[in-house]
Amino acid sequence: MFLGCHLSVSNGYLAMGQQALRLGADTFQFFTRNPRGGAVKALDRADLKALIDLANKNNLGPLVAHAPYTLNPCAAEVRIRNFALKSMAEDLERLALLPGALYNFHPGCHVGQGTEAGIRQTAALLNEVLTADTSVTVLLETMAGKGSEIGRSFGELAEVIGLVKFEAKVGVCLDTCHVFDAGYDIVDDLDGVLEEFDRELGLNRLKAVHINDSLNNKSSHKDRHAKIGQGQIGLPAIRKVVYHPKLQLLPFVLETPNEPDGYALEIKMLREPPQEDN
Ligand code: FE
Ligand code: FE
Ligand code: ZN
Prior knowledge:
By secondary structure, the protein is of the alpha/beta class. It has one domain (2-270): TIM Barrel (Alpha-Beta Barrel), CATH 3.20.20. It is built from 9 helices and 10 strands. It has helices at 13-22, 45-57, 78-95, 115-129, 154-162, 176-182, 190-200, 235-242, 260-271; strands at residues 2-6, 28-31, 64-66, 102-105, 137-141, 170-175, 206-211, 213-214, 225-226, 251-254. Strands 1-2-3-4-5-6-7-10 form an 8-stranded parallel barrel, surrounded by 4 helices. The chain has a two-stranded antiparallel sheet with strand order 8-9. Helix 1 runs parallel beside helix 2 (45-57). The structure holds fe (iii) ion (FE) (2 copies) and zinc ion. One fe (iii) ion (FE) is lined by residues 141, 175, 210, 255.
């Protein structure tokens, strides 16, 4: 099992890898740039190389880079769509230097243009940035369906991918809080949800999983993460996700409201094998 958490990149790449190891993680996620702005730091190649060496030496699983929240490929405003295009192109160029890295982004908010228009615009962005030479796998994250978010169903993600020329370079990151909020019953019917994912998208598209409990009930469309075992999904259901035979070798990344110490505890708790009565 590759299990880790979201970490701050503020002290650099190597520091992030070292922190992951201290927390008992063997994968992690980080923002490619300021999540609420979009500014990017100059690339320190020596620091990135040091992380790659550390990752190899310690057999870390695939690392997940998360695009900033301000990246909206299906914004109504051209200026915002252009920012998405420029940021994604730059991020992919940089991540090409980090072998095996996955690039996760939110498929966007259509802001009143309608779901179909949003789907077309997000696919159009991918068709502009992805080329035959792109080495990074880009992941569409499953969304809670808050506001005008697209990607609230596996079918919507499949529609986006169906419009992308280099579709082999596109995967999906399943977020447990988001799919539950979107209405998928991962508590009582995880197998059924994974079967539906397989029918709509193909399980081979699934490249990473965000492990979060949800503050709110199924189908609430709220997207409020909770600590593991302190939300409406609960520890037994989260355990079934990380131990599911069809999901092994995927990077599992916690994005729970925690400081590093809290992440270390959740990682430890999830690594303990499931109890019989689960
Ligand atoms: Fe996300
Ligand atoms: Fe997430
Ligand atoms: Zn979320």
